[in-house]
Amino acid sequence: MTGRLYRDEAVVLRTYRLGEADRIIVMLTRSHGQVRAVAKGVRRTTSRFGARLEPFTMIDVQLYRGRSLDVIAQVETLDPFARAITGDYSVFTCASTMVETAERLTQDDGDLDTTESPQQYLLLYGALAALARRRHAPGLVLDSYLLRALALAGWAASCYDCARCGASGPHAAFHVQAGGAVCAGCRPAGAVDVEPGTMALLGALLSGDWGVADVSAERDRAQASGIVSAYLTWHLERRLRSLSLVERA
């Protein structure tokens, strides 16, 4: 049994009912990518760690490997983000979109390299912490997370130079399929006109420049959110269920 045990930090992404008393817990871990594991008896009122396995919670978890699903043996709360997130609808819907995105992007662990490269885990942890602690407007945190998570997955949006020819920007149009900003010479059908403030905001959200993002105008935030949503949907090849619930200005 000892050889099958392992321990890791994780963020709980989602839970599913299993049988009468168990749950399947979907987690994004620091060192093992996305893990699906059974929490036995967790739905009973006598469960020792039921409340520790709620979505958005950061945990220290010990598991042992099973044939089809791993089994949770022990869990401790490291950061109870769920308490601060679930009490505010706008924050909750943003967090829900984040964990749904993380689940989709890491389902094959193609963007992770176990202990050497836990970027998606660290990015999600930082974004949830920013939401829970109200560091920035929820919509800005969400859009920054989505752009950066897609970049880690290999789909970085160009927010300054032309995505097609590399011509130096800034440019006044954005084309989702082309990969971002496009110059006048490369502009394809379907590109949308983008205000200079919106393009600057997109670049700030991608780079984490909160000095620019926090003072951005509401009209620029609204246009940026629409572009980010379209960019996410294009690359995931379907619209996320939680994204439709997010309250936008």
Question: How are the elements arranged and paired?
Answer:
Blueprint: E1 5-18, E2 22-29, E3 34-39, E4 58-64, E5 70-79, H1 81-85, H2 89-105, H3 119-132, H4 138-152, E6 173-175, E7 180-182, E8 192-193, H5 196-207, H6 210-213, H7 218-236
Parallel strand pairs: 3-5
Antiparallel strand pairs: 1-2, 1-4, 2-3, 4-5, 6-7, 6-8
Helix pairs in contact: 2-3, 2-4, 3-4, 4-5, 4-7, 5-7
Percent in helix: 25-40%
Strand line-up in the sheet with most strands: 1-2-3-5-4
Question: Would you give the CATH topology of the largest domain?
Answer: de novo design (two linked rop proteins)
Q: Per the principal axes of the C-alpha atoms, what is the gross shape?
A: elongated
Number of domains: 2
Which class best fits the helix and strand makeup? Answer: alpha+beta
- The helix/strand series, from N terminus to C terminus, equals EEEEEHHHHEEEHHH
Please give the CATH class of the largest domain.
Mainly Alpha
Spans of at least 5 consecutive residues with low confidence = 110-116
Total strands: the figure is 8
Counted by DSSP, the helix tally is 7
Query: What oligomeric state do the depicted chains represent?
Result: single chain
